[in-house]
Backbone:
């Protein structure tokens, strides 16, 4: 009779790692999207499975990809005013989500995934420094911004 090594197979756990978003649940144009995500988060928490939730900040890549247009326009214009935004990069998020999937200590946790919050004025300064240009930020009203987007995208 030969010796048969025991094979230990890891127990597969049922787990949800949900990619959510940050934002105000009331009084913004994006509030319905935020409310929908919060409901899904609650559904995930009540699923009976292991879970972790990441609430993503705003991706910085679209602004970086738009740098040539910002240069042509002389700056950044939108309706953010003095509001602050915590940007993040997709590779940073991929790293965070990989950790949530592979490390048990994240079970039952909700994370806001973003960098240090900054204003659009600061974003213009940082992008100017990084890309050797002189961008400024010009605030617009919500209606001006809506019209600007409609004009550019049609």
Residues:
């Amino acid at each position: 009779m030969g010796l048969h090594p025991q094979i230990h197979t890891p127990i597969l756990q049922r787990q949800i790692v949900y990619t959510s978003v940050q934002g105000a649940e009331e009084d913004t144009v994006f509030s319905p999207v935020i409310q929908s995500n919060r409901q899904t988060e609650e559904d995930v928490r009540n699923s009976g499975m292991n879970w972790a939730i990441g609430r993503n900040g705003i991706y910085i890549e679209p602004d970086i990809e738009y740098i040539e247009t910002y240069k042509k326009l002389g700056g950044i214009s939108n309706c953010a005013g003095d509001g602050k935004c915590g940007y993040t990069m997709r590779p940073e998020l991929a790293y965070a989500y990989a950790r949530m999937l592979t490390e048990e200590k994240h079970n039952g946790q909700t994370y806001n995934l973003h960098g240090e919050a900054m204003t659009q004025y600061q974003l213009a300064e940082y992008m100017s420094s990084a890309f050797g240009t002189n961008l400024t930020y010009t605030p617009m009203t919500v209606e001006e911004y809506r019209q600007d987007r409609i004009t550019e995208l049609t």
